[in-house]
Every structure is written in C-alpha cells, then in structure tokens.
Automatic annotation (TrEMBL):
Signal peptide from the UniProt entry: 1-19
Keyword annotations from UniProtKB, A to Z: Cell outer membrane, Membrane, Signal, Transmembrane, Transmembrane beta strand
Membrane topology type: Multi-pass membrane protein
Subcellular location: Cell outer membrane
InterPro entries per record: OMPP1/FadL/TodX
Primary subcellular site in the record, as a coarse category: membrane
One of the record's GO cellular component terms: cell outer membrane
UniProt keyword Signal, yes or no: yes
Name used for this protein in its record: Long-subunit fatty acid transport protein
Domain of life: Bacteria
Family membership noted in the UniProt record: Belongs to the OmpP1/FadL family.
Length: 417
C-alpha cells in the first residue's frame, strides 16, 4: 500500500510539471481564473453536498471529517470535460482531461485524523479570436494559460460521538499568463501585450460536523465550514511590443518591447458553508447545503479591465445516496452506492451588466473493489453557465469524473514478533 502511494505521488507531481490546462472557458480570463470545485468525486456526484462523512471516504470540503476515518485512505481523482461554447451566431467545442486531486488521510488515533493533499485551486485556459470581415477594421486574438495550485494539510478532532471539529491550512502557488494581439490587416504592424503573474499565499479553512440519531434508524447530520478572507501575493510582469502578424496569424515581434514589473495583493473572499441532512447510515441519505461567499470584495489581477464587476455569490446544493444492501455477499449491485444531486450558483461574476450563473445535475456510482473497503467512484455532470445576452458566451458542459480510493490499516501494533 505504501509503495502504491509513493508511486502515485511521483506520478502526480510529474503531471503538475506538464502545466495541465484545467479549463477552456473564456470566463477564466477574469480574476485568477475558474475556481475549481474542491471536493471528492463522492460529494461532487451528490451535487456537491458534504454534510455526511464516513470511515473510508475522504471529505475534502470539511476538515472535521478527517476525525471519522478508521482506515488510511489514499485517493486520486480525474475529470474529463466536454465544453460547447455558444454565442448568438456561432458555436465551438473544447475538451480537457485533468487530474483533480491526490490526497492521503490517516486516522492518527481514535479521536484524531489528519490529511495531506495537492489539488488545483483555479485554472486559466482560453483561446478567443475575433477576426473582422473588414480588413480595415481591428481584429484580435487572446490566449491564456496557467492557474493556482493548492497544497493543504488538515486535522480533525472528535469532541464526542456526536460532534467533531477541524482546521486546515492551504498554501497556494502558481503562474498565470495571458497574451493579447490586436492588429489591422491593412496596416503592417500590430500590438501584443503579454501579462504574467506569479502567485503565492496562505489561507485557512475551519469546520465542524454534527450527527445524532433522531429515531432508531434515522440520523440527523449537520455541518458548517468557514474560510476567512485571505491575501494572495502577485509578482506581475507586463510586456507591450510591436509585432508583425502574418497571413497565417504567426506573430513576429519587431522590437524588444516595454517591460513593466509590479507587485500587488489580491483578496480571496471569505466563504461560509452550512448544510443539513437526514438518513439511515449505510443505507441512504439526503442533504442540502448553502455556500455564501463575499465575492464583492474580489478584484482582477490588473486594474484596466472595465467591463467586469463582482457581487456576493451563493450556491445551493441538493443531493444524496442510496445503498440497497451494503453487506450483501452474493449480489454485487446491492453493494453499489448510487448517488445523485443538483446545484445552482450565482458565481459572483458580472460582465457587461449580466450576472454569470451556473447550474448542473449530477449522477454517480460507488463501485466496491473485491472484498476490501477500497472503491472506484464514477460521476457524471451536465450543466450550463453564462448567457448569450450582451454579446457574452453560454457554456454547456459535460463532466465525467472518476476517483480511486484505496484503504488500508496503518499503525497496527503487532501481537507477535
């Protein structure tokens, strides 16, 4: 088991060096890019609901859940995204495959649990072209790539059989680069602007989880998580130069360019998540969760973007799971976990006076592996973000996500030497 984890870490760190593009959305132009859902496939398949945790799955959204683990868990998740971009007159398609997270969680004692992990926090990845039919008018091409990764460590503690608390520290790091070229075909030269930002900073997440039986079979669940406002430090570079744009759109710099360097600070808004659910343990559960984020305090990396504003964002999630018979020995499908959910979000982004909203429906399966507690989790999401109003882009997306969760017992004291 340890060898598998070490090999997994090596593969994952290698994958990060490839600078994977986690999005193809033009909305990733703003801020630090698309903020990626921080959650395991198990929770994502339930619309993002995280009010429930058990002894063999890692709940990445609330650090209090780490105290519930009874076995060491190693989990890695990946996502395939199929995106269709629509305007009032055109449509394009894009695809991305990414690694979503790699996490190791360990039950340190009967009351304590700890976790370490690495995952992307935000992603930038867009290619936009606006070629004017009139060669005497301006045309533009825009590119962006990079993002912010997050290394985290968390600790959960069970106060008693009903209440647990937890805390998590996150180190954020990464690079974002954007490239814009503007030119008029009938004029020999155009202009290129290169912007890059090196990002780093620390933020925290605190959580609590509660459960209590309300009848002989039914258990009530509750959870709350809070991330206070924090600061990201940015080292920025901007290079503006004259370029020659060839007929096949190759860009050839004509001079060294003007280099501007600056440092800035970007606020990560505070976030409050609270939810509740009810169910029969190892049988079924339904829950709902509300996320409130003070996004109105957010800003862009640069101050000369005029068509965007930010408002406080909210997200509502609803979902649950069902297991026909978790301890069935002769019918595999009865041991499968069936999940489904729905979520709706006001993202907090306002472009051309239009709020950018996002909603999706999810389904998933938890497939046990042999006679162990390990499992494969598969999920599917269909959703829509944005609008074609005000010259904007509507995104219709399909996500297929999968995770491998391996469980084992560590730190077991041997009875015999």
């Amino acid at each position: 088991m340890i060898k598998k984890i070490l090999i997994g870490f090596c593969l994952f760190f290698s994958a990060l060096t490839w600078a994977q593009e986690g999005t193809a959305s033009p909305y990733s132009f703003y801020g630090i890019g698309d903020v990626i859902f921080k959650g395991a496939v198990e929770n994502r398949s339930m619309g993002g609901v995280s009010v429930f945790s058990d002894s063999i799955h890692v709940n990445l959204q609330n650090p209090a859940s780490f105290s519930h683990l009874k076995q060491t868990t190693f989990t890695v998740g990946a996502n395939y995204n199929n995106l269709k971009l629509n305007t009032t007159s055109e449509s394009e398609k894009a695809r991305r495959t990414t690694i979503d997270y790699l996490v190791v969680a360990v039950p340190v004692s009967k009351k304590f649990g700890a976790s370490l992990g690495l995952l992307p926090f935000s992603s930038v990845g867009y290619k936009i072209e606006s070629i004017n039919d009139d060669p005497s008018q301006q045309s533009s091409r825009y590119f962006g790539e990079g993002g912010v990764n997050r290394f985290f460590g968390g600790l959960g503690y069970s106060i008693n059989a009903h209440l647990s608390i937890g805390a998590e520290v996150n180190y954020n790091f990464g690079n974002i680069s954007t490239n814009s070229v503007e030119f008029i075909p009938t004029i020999q030269y155009g202009t290129r602007e290169l912007n890059s930002s090196r990002v780093n900073g620390v933020n925290f997440n605190f959580g609590a989880m509660y459960n209590r039986k309300v009848t002989e079979k039914l258990t009530l669940f509750g959870s709350v998580a809070y991330s206070p406002e924090s600061i990201l430090n940015l080292d920025n570079e901007r290079n503006i130069t004259t370029v020659l744009v060839t007929n096949n759109f190759t860009v050839i710099p004509q001079e060294e360019g003007i280099l501007q360097k600056s440092t800035s600070k970007l606020k990560l808004p505070s976030k409050l998540v609270f939810g509740t659910g009810i169910g029969e343990v190892r049988k079924w559960m339904v829950g709902t969760e509300l996320t409130i984020q003070q996004s109105s305090n957010f800003a862009n990396r640069f101050n000369d973007i005029n068509n965007v504003q930010y408002e406080n964002s909210t997200k509502l999630s609803l979902g649950g799971y069902f297991i026909p018979k978790y301890n069935s020995f002769n019918r595999y499908l009865e041991r499968v976990t069936y999940r489904a959910g729905f979520n709706y979000a006001n993202t907090g982004l306002i472009i051309n006076n239009e709020s950018i909203n996002d909603y999706g429906i999810t389904f998933g399966l938890g497939l046990p592996l042999g006679g162990s507690f390990s499992n494969i989790n598969i999920g599917f999401e269909y959703g829509k973000r944005g609008t074609t109003n005000a010259g904007l882009i509507e995104e219709n997306y399909i996500n297929i996500f999968i995770s491998l969760s391996l469980n084992d017992k560590w730190f077991v004291k041997r009875k015999y030497d």
